[in-house]
Amino acid sequence: MRTVAIASGSKGNCIYVEAGGTRLLVDLGITCSIAEGRLWACGIDPASIDGILITHEHTDHCAGVQVFAAKYGTKIYIHQSGAPYIMKKFSKIHQNQIVFFASSTFFIDDVMVGCEEVPHDSNFCLSFSLNFSGKKVSVITDVGHVKDKVLQHLYGSDVLYIEANHDEQMLLENPKYSLSLKNRIMSPKGHLSNTSCGLVLVKLIKTGVKQVVLSHLSEENNTPELAYLTVKNILLQNGINEGEHVFVDVAFQNSVGTFFEI
Q1: String of DSSP letters for 108-137
Q2: Could you report the per-residue pLDDT of 142-161, keeping only the tens digit for each?
Q3: pLDDT tens digits along 19-62
Q4: 104 and 115 in contact (C-beta within 8 Å)?
Q5: Exposure string for 142-151, b = 16+ CB within 10 A, e = fewer
């Protein structure tokens, strides 16, 4: 398997996962033209993408889907519970391109896709795991808190993209954000802070997670350095050495991230 973050942050998200001959995107919340440029920069022909998995209806996760899918005939995978909200944005996509699913496990070619609903301030939101030949890539980038059932879904991921959205102190002190917005972000249906992310990782690393990619960082309330150091220190406090027991990377909004091969 191969995977890379094409974009990650509050202004647009897209994760590329390749398994065998199957090429998939998890979300496409950047413009079609930006996605094309970054895929080509990775040596990936946009026309070769077999499918796009949609986590939820927020614009930063699906803004570029309609133009991309219309241009390349790409299949779109949407959970039935999220369909009424997502489909409003995809009126120009041909119906035979859209695949609705209801099961927590299904196949796209030889890739086994697992999903679990996560608490977020959308109508319906999913985390995904993609499994192929004993390897696993998981994505959980919009979540207020991580339930035990979701934790189990992420166990043993070889590469895990996980939200480290904000530093709590930066958020609380941000004069641009209203109190109601701050409360929404910090709520159990909001976004994971750096600290919350680190505590979740303590549990997951014990299940065999080897590579972590901190994702969906807020440009207003976080920095890559702060997210990394906060998580690293929490792991260290729990006897987990970054660079030895696990590797921690950071995904970016305005550039392609690290390419991982597993």
Answers
A1: ETTEEEEEEE---SSSS-EEEEEEETTEEE
A2: 999 999 999 999 999 999 99
A3: 999 999 999 999 999 999 999 999 999 999 999 999 999 999 99
A4: yes
A5: bbbbbeeebe
